[in-house]
Amino acid sequence: xxxxxxxxxxxxxxxxxxxxxxxxxxxxxxxxxxxAITLTPAEILGVADxxxxxxxxxxxxxxxxxxxxxxxxTMRVTHMFIRRRAVDLDNKHKELYRKYSAKKLN
Length: 106
Prior knowledge:
- This protein is of the alpha+beta class.
- The protein has one domain (11-101).
- It contains four helices and three strands, in the order αααβββα.
- The chain has a three-stranded antiparallel sheet, with no helix packed on it.
- A hairpin with a 2-residue loop joins β2 (76-82) and β3.
- The longest helix has 10 residues, at 16-25.
């Protein structure tokens, strides 16, 4: 049986790995869940020659995480690359955390 996991809309995509993790929690093997959000959708859409897996000549989109990428409780994205270009993961929240955690409490 061939199937893929997906989200509609741009905002739902951020939860795709979590959806795969939910499927694993209910018995789907991790390897199949990972494939259901990477290579299988690319195969279904007919673009597996360009995306969906890490191979020479394909467009590389990679997310690196401390912890399990499919678990919101342990996942912490440390690096991201889209088409081989690094994505700046810094934001205002992280900037303020660094600013105020550096100050001593009286």
